[in-house]
Write a structure and sequence with these properties.
The chain is mainly α. The chain contains 22 helices and two strands. It starts with 5 loop residues before the first helix and ends in a 6-residue tail after the last helix.
Length: 524
């Protein structure tokens, strides 16, 4: 593998972050430069595919040139003074924690653009849609690449407006209310988060995340750390989302267009947990240790609550929606991520980072598939499947039915697929939590989390039975099976889900050195 020199790596990372913004501006021009189509709408959609494809190529070049022997170090770093009076700098860089999320973001956005090119969202002309998609990508990539607290906040907030409009203008029934709920929850959480970031930066004497992490909280008093972790934790918990701050998520997912749901679940939910690992754990370790048991408790409640909500939806078969069910499942899956972080151990934090990526791959695939089911049957309501309308995918569209079953068993954590390792490592971390944490309490959390895995298996197997199986004769005529553009958009997610499940060291070998370096106090 060829390692990029510093100058080239800096240029590639800067291009990956900036190109989506430039592409968004170009999409708003009368005709995207250099691209033609049978219509202006096709041209701008092709423009979206081109820009996101170039960004993905840049992310892959960055990953190929990454020095994995130094995965704990910040690489491709750019550090330029931006606002000297406030000590704010344009500081970019990636390490083993942020690189996988950067590549995941670029991949999912490209697949969404590719899917939308052949299946444009229903609603207004796609010019604004493509521009918003690219702004969303730029904000998410910047969140994972910046190393300054103020820039982190700006990037963190940058994604809210594009997602609001994607839901409000291209969403389904109830989109206006869902969009407002999304923006209000996340903005209120962000206000609290901003107070925590300012407190850390002002009390620590710098907004530089690398310098603050190197000090490992030595420049912050215990009371400052407690207040900062509480404020930051609330802000990150809303975006994760953690129970009971999750209530915006089911409505947003149900109303969002397919690509909006893919990016919301696959990328945006990762920003909160990334902030906990990147900022809270290394910069305020005393505060993190104080609140860790509470975080673990909320995480376990979320695991069980999300699973029970899904089980109720699929068992009742009335008023439930597949997209809503997957949204509640995300509350449970992200609970395992939070539990892994709350153990404050290498095992748990690595499991959390692995589960982040696995959830992005699997849930992104699930939302793509649910969108395809809705397009073919006209509904994702579970009561419709209960009456047989749209059921029996195995008989009516066998490849589509097989993919739905694959994504479901991957989501329930079948060994050999990506969903297994993150949850298992989070539970192992709870078995031996960090020194200073109550082991009996964490053993209870372990038992509750294990029970949650059983509930997850129960509702997902019921989903497979409801959607894929049934009486072929009473279900209706054959449905269009997987189309070429769908195959192109979904295959990378299937392949990576299998690859990460069979070869977990591919990802853990990148994150573990960075976790050890970022969290020097952890020992297991």
């Amino acid at each position: 593998m060829i390692t990029l020199n510093d100058t080239v790596a800096q240029f590639v990372l800067a291009a990956v972050v900036v190109l989506p913004l430039l592409g968004a501006g170009a999409a708003l021009l009368p005709a995207p430069p250099g691209l033609r189509g049978r219509s202006p709408e096709q041209a701008v959609l092709r423009h979206g595919v081109t820009v996101t494809g170039v960004v993905l190529l840049g992310a892959l070049v960055l990953a190929a040139g990454f020095d994995y022997d130094r995965a704990e170090d910040i690489q491709a770093g750019t550090d330029i003074s931006w606002i000297p009076a406030l000590g704010i700098r344009l500081h970019l860089g990636v390490d083993g924690i942020s690189l996988p999320l950067l590549v995941l973001t670029a991949l999912l956005t490209f697949l969404c653009a590719l899917y939308s090119y052949r299946n444009p969202p229903k609603g207004p002309a796609p010019t604004a849609f493509v521009a918003l998609l690219l702004v969303l990508e730029a904000g998410t990539l910047a969140t994972f690449a910046v190393l300054d607290l103020v820039l982190f906040f700006l990037a963190f907030e940058m994604v809210l407006i594009p997602m609001y409009f994607l839901i409000a203008r291209w969403g389904g029934a109830g989109r206006a209310q869902a969009a407002w709920k999304f923006i209000l929850y996340t903005l209120l959480g962000s206000v609290v988060m901003l107070l925590g970031l300012l407190l850390v930066g002002l009390q620590g004497g710098t907004f530089d995340m690398v310098a603050l992490a190197t000090d490992n909280g030595s420049g912050l008093s215990r009371s400052t750390q407690l207040i900062a972790v509480l404020a930051l934790g609330i802000g990150f918990a809303v975006k994760t989302p953690m129970w009971p701050l999750h209530t915006w998520l089911p409505d947003a997912h149900t109303a969002a267009p397919t690509v909006g749901s893919v990016l919301l679940a696959g990328v945006l939910l990762k920003m909160g947990t990334y902030g906990l690992v990147r900022i809270v754990l290394p910069i305020a370790p005393e505060g993190a240790q104080f609140f860790a048991p509470y975080l673990a408790a909320f995480a376990c409640v979320g695991i069980v609550y999300g699973s029970l909500a899904c089980l109720f939806l699929v068992r009742s078969g009335t008023g439930g929606d597949l997209k809503r069910l997957i949204a509640y499942s995300s509350v449970g899956h992200m609970g395992f991520v939070l539990l892994g972080i709350a153990t404050l151990t290498r095992t748990g934090v690595n499991g959390a980072l692995f589960a982040n990526v696995a959830h992005g791959l699997i849930t992104g695939l699930l939302f793509f598939l649910v969108g395809a089911v809705k397009e073919r049957t006209g509904s994702t309501e579970l009561d419709q499947f209960a009456r047989g309308a749209g059921a029996a995918l195995y008989g009516r569209a066998p490849r589509l039915g097989g993919l739905v079953a694959f994504a479901a068993v991957a989501s329930l954590g079948l060994p050999g697929l990506a969903g297994f390792w993150g949850e298992m490592l989070a539970l192992l971390g709870a078995y031996h939590p960090a020194d200073g944490l109550s082991r009996p309490a964490y053993l209870v959390f372990l038992a509750v989390g294990g029970f949650g895995t059983l509930l997850t298996a129960a509702y997902l197997l019921l989903v497979v039975r409801r959607v894929c199986m049934g009486d072929r004769a009473s279900a209706g005529a054959a449905l269009p099976d997987v189309r070429g553009y769908e195959f192109a958009a979904w295959t990378p997610l299937v392949v990576l889900t299998v690859l990460a499940g069979l070869w977990p060291a591919l990802l853990l070998g990148v994150t573990d050195p960075a976790v050890q370096h970022l969290l020097p106090g952890v020992s297991r």
